[in-house]
Amino acid sequence: MLSDMDMITHSFPGDIHVIPVADVHLGALECAVSAWEAFLRRVQESANTYIILAGDLLNNSIRGVGFANPFDEVLRPKEAKRKMVEYLGPIKDRILCIVSGNHERRTLRDDDQDLTYDICAKLDIEQLYRENMAFLRLKLGQRSNASKPDNTYAICVTHGAGGGIYTGAAVNRDERFGNIIDGLDCLVAAHVHKGFVSKPSKICVDVRNGIVSMQHYTVISCVSWLNYGGYAAQKMLLPAHTAEPQVLTFKVGNNGRGKKIITTW
Predict the structure, then answer these.
(1) Per-residue b or e along 79-98, where b marks 16 or more CB atoms closer than 10 Å to that residue's CB
(2) What's the pLDDT score for residue 256?
(3) Residues in contact with 233: Cβ distance below 8 Å, sequence separation at least 6, in sequence order
(4) φ, ψ for residue 108, nearest 5 deg
(5) Which of 25, 66, 110, 256 could form a disulfide with 59 if both were Cys (CB 3.0 to 4.6 A apart)?
(6) What are the extents of the domains in the chain?
(7) Are the C-beta atoms of 168 and 194 separated by less than 8 Å?
């Protein structure tokens, strides 16, 4: 198993579309299975489209964990794991990276059995797995000399953590984390089941060249694939938009312009 700090690199000849996916919670009674299956078909049929998997693909409800109730599950954990492999098999070449979520870590913490790694091993993509967070380098087009724009993007992917009823708490937490990573173009997080896109900036001081500039980056919080009910209703959580993830288009720079990320939702 590779370290979180081992960067994953992918190269592409031109523009690509990247869809961040998390919080599928396969096995939960509320999982939007039909929407999930339709999404996978769209990915398979779409050119230059790739996915990032940011944890909680499985619900993995086990005894003794918070409000988890294994009797509400429609799939046992081992069945959900097998089914997720079946789902991802046809598009495994479209996966850029995969990290674990807190639901998969329930088993990792108790029994040292890593369900997400098991899925990757079955798909033969172990090199794309990171336990806590993944750093992606996407190289687009060709840069034959220094005068051409830089088309290499840096992305950090983490499942995320923390609670908060309101979306603003998640925005603040994700942006705060993004601010500690220099050179970041995009942060992908999940966990809160509240989809959003934000475009923060940070001030960069280049002492050597005497330049103060603004560095912009994109923050994506993934939607969930859970219909409202169950735990969310019990805890009086606010309903959120589900099963329609954001699409990020990473552009090859031209006309002297460098990197550009276009978000569609």
Answers:
(1) ebbeebbebbeebeebbbbb
(2) 46
(3) none
(4) -60, -40
(5) 25
(6) 8-252
(7) no
Q: How many other CB atoms are there within 10 angstroms of residue 241's CB atom?
A: 13
Total residues belonging to the chain: 265
The string of DSSP letters for 181-229 reads STT-SEEEE-SS---EEE--EEEEEETTTTEEEEEE-EEEEPPB-B-S-
- What is the residue whose two structure tokens read 């088993």? 107
Summarised one tens digit per residue, pLDDT across range 9-45 is 999 999 999 999 999 999 999 999 999 999 999 999 9
* 38/167: higher pLDDT: 38
CATH 2.70.220 fits 8-252, yes or no: no
Alpha carbons 199 and 219: distance in angstroms, whole number: 6
Give yes or no for a contact between 134 and 8, defined as CB atoms under 8 angstroms apart: yes
pTM of the predicted protein model: 0.93
